Each structure stands twice: as structure tokens, then as C-alpha cells.
Amino acid sequence: MWIADNWEDYEVIDTSGGEKLERWGDYILVRPDPQVIWNTPHNAYEWKHKNGHYHRSSKGGGEWEFFDLPNEWTIQYRELTFHLKPFSFKHTGLFPEQAVNWDWCAQKIRNAGRELKVLNLFAYTGGATISAAAAGAKVTHVDASKGMVTWAKENAVSSNIPSDRIRWLVDDCVKFVEREIRRGNTYDGIIMDPPSYGRGPKGEIWKIEESIFPFIELAAKVLSKDAEFFLINSYTTGLQPAVLSYMLNTVLCPKFGGAVEAQEIGLPVRENGLVLPCGASGRWSRK
What confidence score (pLDDT) does residue 59 get? Predict the structure, then answer.
């Protein structure tokens, strides 16, 4: 398992009864997590000192209950700064477990010996984008949500990323890649974190089980002949590490060589020293 264990401003304190207890900077949140199917005693004192609690509804969705939580605050990861705010369906605008992938991509970028062009698809609030740009890449950031792209821009400014390092696009990822193929544009690295289900800005439907393999094949067409890496992350339980590995091996290795690795990703839990699983990632690299 690849573990995001380099955080100082974030930690999973405890897990129990379908929920995780987290510290986000100075604030304590309780949020639901479908992986937490065990019940253990609430020994951590933070269970009784939370600033926000997202309650799931039996009818779907849910709502926040707040206890002295600001509308927005920031946390840092290494040299990066991220704006957080509680919004719909339990999210805060950041997936901390992805830091293990940010670090891997940043290392590939720094070790390349040249400036890389990186494409980040389904790029959300820009964690991977900003990390890649800070490592020296020129990044194209694509997400179908205007609000998420605006949020990502705020994170880039707070992280002191020069404005010419990132190209921001509100677009359907599939249609964008199709246009890039027609234009003849290529990238040295691709990052993608596709949703299980989603809609593009014009109502385009995305279902990951049906769409992901054709999309990997499509995205491979915009890899440069000297491409360095390809990263895919998934929170969909059906896309286990072996499935991600199989797809990347099938599409990329015959054309580019290189090697593929795939693992679960996770976050350490302070109270018991165990690791909370948080999806899976597949990585192809030339070296």
C-alpha cells in the first residue's frame, strides 16, 4: 500500500462506526467513510471536541452540523497551501491521501532533466496540478466544474505558483482530449482522477466502468514519444489495483515500454497505527 504519511497539518485520528475523525489544521471534523465497517471505542478525546460533523441521511446525502468552524481556512502540505471549506456531500475540497501521488509525480518531474508538459484531467481543486507546477512542470488543468477550477486557481495563488505555469480549462475531459489529438498536442505526463459517475458541462454522462478503458486508450494518444509518466486514481471499489495495472499494461507498455505499478492508497490512523484504505492508484513510468 502507498501511504500518505508526510502530512503535518492533517491526520486521521480515529475511525469507528462508519466514520472517521480527522484533524484539518486547527479543526476537528467527523465525516462518514464507507470503508469503516468496524465499531471500536471512542477513546480519542477529539470525538467530544469536534468542530464539524457530517451526518449521512438514510435517504441519501446528508448535512453538516457545525461547532465553531469557520467558513473557510487553509492547511499546508510541504510548500503548498490549500483552501478548505465544508460543502456538499461531506467534502472539504481536498483528498489528503492523494499527497502520496503528488510526491511521486513531483519526483518524476524533478528527475526528468527537462521541463515537462503535464495534463491533469478531472483535476478538481488542483492538488496534483499545483504540486506538479511547483516541481517545475507546465500544467494543463482540466475540470468540468467552473467552481472547482476557480477554487484551484485560489490554491495556486496561495501556493505562490507563477501564473504562467498552469493553463486552466473548464471542459469535458473526453472532448478536450479528442480536440488535443486533432491539434497534434502532446504531453510528457498525464494525471487523471476520474469520478465514478459524473456529468460534463453540457450534460455529458460519465460512468467509470463503461468509460475508463476507452478513455485511457484515448489519453495515451496525447502522450509524447518521450513521455515520463501516467497516473490514474480511482475510488470505485470495482477498480482494484490489479485492474488498473492490467489496463495500463495493456495500453501503454506495448507502445512506450516502461513499467507499471498499482497499489491501494491509504492514510495512517493515529490511535491504532493502522492504515485506512482510500482507493487505488496505477502508475506507469518510463524508468
Answer: 78
Q: How far apart are CA 103 and CA 275, in angstroms?
A: 19
Residues 184 and 273 in one domain: yes
- Is beta strand 189-192 parallel, antiparallel or unpaired with respect to 229-234? parallel
Q: Exposed, middle or buried by CB within 10 Å (0-12, 13-18, 19+), for 257?
A: exposed
> Rounded to 10 degrees, what is the CA torsion of 173, 160, 147, 21?
100
Per-residue pLDDT reduced to its tens digit, 221-276: 999 999 999 999 998 777 899 999 999 999 999 999 999 999 999 999 999 999 99
Measured CA to CA, the distance from residue 242 to residue 118 in angstroms comes to: 25
183 class by beta-carbon count within 10 Å (0-12 exposed, 13-18 middle, 19+ buried): exposed
Contact criterion met (CB below 8 Å) for 247 and 264: no
Q: Domain tally for the chain?
A: 2
Please indicate, yes or no, if residue 217 is contained in any of the structural domains: yes
Q: What is the DSSP letter of 89?
A: T
- Look up residue 97 and give its DSSP letter: G
CA–CA gap between residue 124 and residue 121 (Å, rounded): 8
Cβ neighbour number for residue 142 with a 10 Å cutoff: 23
Structural domain of residue 128, as residue ranges?
97-285
Nearest to 117 by CA among 135, 131, 137: 137
Residue carrying C-alpha cell 479543526:
27
The residue from 84, 119, 148 where one domain ends is 84
Q: How far apart are CA 260 and CA 284, in angstroms?
A: 4
Q: Which of 84, 105, 137 is the last residue of a domain?
A: 84
Classify residue 91: in a domain, yes or no. Answer: no
Query: Which residues lie below 8 Å from residue 182, measured CB to CB, with a gap of 6+?
Result: none
Q: What CATH number has the domain bearing residue 249?
A: 3.40.50.150
State the average pLDDT for the chain. Answer: 94
